[in-house]
Write a sequence for this structure.
């Protein structure tokens, strides 16, 4: 469960995020939309502890990210918009490293690594140094890393960026399956077709504020309806 | 000339932007930089002035030997500027993203080469030049040089001298890259490194600086100076000798001779610059492509590096997150050829220092003189350790890099991460530092307590230097910079290095009185009190600096990512 309470982030007097409050319940697939510079990535960075909010609170499964970061982060999986890896480590070593940070049991980590290497079809490159990876390969390694500790909340910023159609399909299928199993997904994306396909609920932000909110309904199946709504409210 | 103006304009704009930044943390950085740089500049001024006065008034070595000493110091200065320039040039001219961007523009390769070369000289030698100028002022104050003489020395001799060292660094690097692409980096290094070492060794042998110093010490002791060594090579044949010769001519009012030295320097600068321009016009693009290919080849050649017990899959008897961070740091270090190369160079420097100190023969002197020699050795050792910490500890936080998101979003507290980095750096630096002490301090022939005090003081120095470099490294961190050499040669690194020198002098100051008492104590008397006094004071000082640096580092680490 994710709870954002009057979240604000100011940069030298400019409010990148301006009083955002929302709740995402367990098992929900939540779409966080908005034009460029709306404050999506800033909000996500505050949720994962990469940024300190100017004011307000962010709680993950009841733990405040600022006051109890270690407990809050235990249940988070995160994929940033630019999934930089360590160039001089292989993808497999990166997964070992993340598993270590999450204090996973060695046997369990090994099993999960094999599971995700197979699932995201990474066997061909996982033992090569990350400096040789394409954007899509990095994205797949980062996605595998975000799920390796079996998180309860997955926070993903543009997860399908740079993925080829087959990888996109694989990621979407995995996310759908995991959500059915109880995973809460908080996704920021510009791909409205993906939102229509995956999300249970969306909010649209602009200028750091929530300007629109809607739960999935039958009208989403009308081709282009969500796109029109987005264009109308963000004009 | 337009290239120089372009770079100067850009540098002036950056400097102006930095100085006029009114944000609180920027103001803090600027003020702290100003205080530390001023302190070190004043210190250098005072040190060189005192050194010149000592040689002239106490040892009466005369003008020519004094300028031979100046020439030797300038040789070391030239080598330092050249070596730092060589190391930084690889990043500035061959790996920086900016160069890739410039190569895509319709610009002549020679123009890009010249602009980056001048940038490189600014980046690598600004701090050293500042110290050199402070030294020049210290020297000039002894001989009461006028402002015109300072200006002439600076523009006609000193700055050309620094430029020659910097340009030669870029020329040498470009040729090395072209040769490495043909013969392989490993084979080339096997030839070049011994050649550099042999050249330096030969110069030192040929100019016999030890003979010169022995003569000076004999004169100071009122003895007839021993005959000088077999000097095979004139002090005045190289640019360092020309600067010294120019200064000597200036103070002796021999204008024609001074003009000769200045003209030689300017002609050499013109020749070196013309050579660099020709090289850049013809070969820069080829060298840049070769460097890129060498980097890619390096990425594919990891296979040979296998240390099984360090592999991630191997279990260690420690907590998983600590194990993960230590193994990551090890592999990121070990797989970076620049890090490995620099570690080897530093190890060679350490061995050279141990041998140099072990061959010195200090006659039994007054307690104050023995304490002074002890402190000089301690400061030299500390200087080497501070170079090590600057090169390897200062970039530790920056090297978390853009992948820091993985650590920041994981359930590991930043305090724990910082602590892990500190413990690892402290242990890795303490071991060579103590080896340095145990192998080189016996030359002082003091009681056992002296050795113990040296070991405790070095432990305090390592504690302070590692903490300072880690804390300041976090404060000045640039997560977007992947090259540790560039991080370790940034403005923040220069300020930290100057801060390290102040710390060393502070620790040396705390040791002075206990040491004089220990050396002056009659045989058989108890020295424990002085040992506790000196050891305790240095440990308290080191601990205090460590605590302050920890606060700075932790606050910086918690900054927004």
């Amino acid at each position: 469960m994710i709870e954002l309470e009057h979240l604000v982030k100011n940069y030298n007097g400019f409010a990148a995020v301006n009083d955002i409050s929302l709740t995402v319940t367990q098992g929900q697939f939540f779409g966080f939309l908005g034009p460029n510079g709306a404050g999506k990535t800033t909000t996500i960075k505050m949720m994962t502890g990469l940024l300190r909010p100017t004011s307000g609170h962010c709680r993950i499964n009841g733990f405040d990210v600022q006051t109890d970061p270690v407990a809050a982060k235990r249940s988070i999986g995160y994929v940033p918009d630019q999934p930089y890896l360590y160039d001089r480590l292989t993808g497999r070593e990166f997964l070992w490293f993340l598993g270590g940070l999450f204090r996973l049991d060695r046997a369990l980590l090994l099993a999960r690594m094999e599971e995700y290497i197979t699932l995201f079809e990474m066997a061909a490159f996982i033992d090569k140094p990350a400096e040789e990876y394409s954007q899509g390969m990095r994205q797949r390694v980062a996605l595998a890393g975000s799920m390796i500790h079996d998180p309860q909340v997955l926070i993903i910023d543009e997860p399908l960026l740079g993925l080829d159609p087959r990888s996109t399909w694989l990621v979407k299928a995995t996310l759908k399956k995991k959500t059915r199993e109880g995973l809460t997904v908080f996704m920021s994306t510009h791909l409205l077709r993906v939102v229509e396909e995956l999300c249970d609920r969306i909010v649209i932000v602009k200028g750091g504020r929530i300007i629109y909110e809607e739960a999935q309904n039958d009208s989403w199946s009308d081709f282009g309806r969500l796109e029109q709504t987005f264009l109308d409210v963000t004009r | 000339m337009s290239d120089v103006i372009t770079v100067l304009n850009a540098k002036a704009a950056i400097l102006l932007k930095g100085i006029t930044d009114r944000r609180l943390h920027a103001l803090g950085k600027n003020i702290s930089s100003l205080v530390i740089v001023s302190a070190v500049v004043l210190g250098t001024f005072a040190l060189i002035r005192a050194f010149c006065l000592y040689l002239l008034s106490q040892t009466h070595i005369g003008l020519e030997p004094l300028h031979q000493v100046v020439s030797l110091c300038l040789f070391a200065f030239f080598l330092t500027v050249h070596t730092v320039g060589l190391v930084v040039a690889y990043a500035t001219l061959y790996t920086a993203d900016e160069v890739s961007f410039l190569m895509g523009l319709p610009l002549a390769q020679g123009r890009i080469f010249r602009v980056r070369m001048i940038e490189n000289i600014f980046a690598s030698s600004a701090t050293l030049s500042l110290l050199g100028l402070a030294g020049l002022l210290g020297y000039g104050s002894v001989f009461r040089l006028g402002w015109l003489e300072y200006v002439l020395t600076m523009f006609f001799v000193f700055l050309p001298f620094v430029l020659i060292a910097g340009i030669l660094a870029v020329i040498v690097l470009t040729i090395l890259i072209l040769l490495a692409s043909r013969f392989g980096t490993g084979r080339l290094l096997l030839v070049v490194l011994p050649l550099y070492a042999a050249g330096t060794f030969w110069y030192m042998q040929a100019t016999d600086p030890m003979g010169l110093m022995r003569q000076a010490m004999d004169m100071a002791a009122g003895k007839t100076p021993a005959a000088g060594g077999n000097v095979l090579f004139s002090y005045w044949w190289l640019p360092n000798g020309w600067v010294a010769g120019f200064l000597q001519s200036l103070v002796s009012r021999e204008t024609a001779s001074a003009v000769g030295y200045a003209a030689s320097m300017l002609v050499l600068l013109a020749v070196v610059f013309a050579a660099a321009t020709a090289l850049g016009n013809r070969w820069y693009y080829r060298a840049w492509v070769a460097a890129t290919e060498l980097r890619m080849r390096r990425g594919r050649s990891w296979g040979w590096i296998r240390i099984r017990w360090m592999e991630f899959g191997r279990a260690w008897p420690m907590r998983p997150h600590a194990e993960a961070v230590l193994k990551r740091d090890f592999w990121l270090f070990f797989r970076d050829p620049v890090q490995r190369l620099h570690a080897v160079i530093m190890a060679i420097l350490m061995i050279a220092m141990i041998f140099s100190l072990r061959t010195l023969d200090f006659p039994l002197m007054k307690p104050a003189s023995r304490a002074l020699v002890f402190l000089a050795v301690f400061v030299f050792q500390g200087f080497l350790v501070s170079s090590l910490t600057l090169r390897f500890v200062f970039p530790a936080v920056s090297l978390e890099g853009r992948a820091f998101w993985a650590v920041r979003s994981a359930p590991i507290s930043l305090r724990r991460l910082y602590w892990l980095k500190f413990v690892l750096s402290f242990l890795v630096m303490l071991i060579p530092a103590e080896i340095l002490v145990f192998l080189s301090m016996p030359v002082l022939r003091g009681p056992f307590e002296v050795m113990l005090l040296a070991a405790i003081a070095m432990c305090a120095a390592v504690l302070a230097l590692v903490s300072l470099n880690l804390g300041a490294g976090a404060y000045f961190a640039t997560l977007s910079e992947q090259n540790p050499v560039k991080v370790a040669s940034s403005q923040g690194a220069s300020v930290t290095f100057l801060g390290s020198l102040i710390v060393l002098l502070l620790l040396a100051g705390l040791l002075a009185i206990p040491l004089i008492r220990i050396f002056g104590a009659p045989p058989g008397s108890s020295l424990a009190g002085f040992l506790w006094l000196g050891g305790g004071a240095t440990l308290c000082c080191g601990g205090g600096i460590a605590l302050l640096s920890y606060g700075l580092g932790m606050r910086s680490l918690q900054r927004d990512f």
Notes: Strands of chain A lie at 2-11, 14-24, 29-33, 55-60, 63-64, 76-79, 153-157, 184-188, 201-206, 209-215. The interface with chain B takes residues 12, 45, 48-52, 69-71, 73-74, 76, 78, 80, 82, 84-89, 92-94, 96-104, 106, 110, 129, 131-132, 145 of chain A (CB under 8 Å).
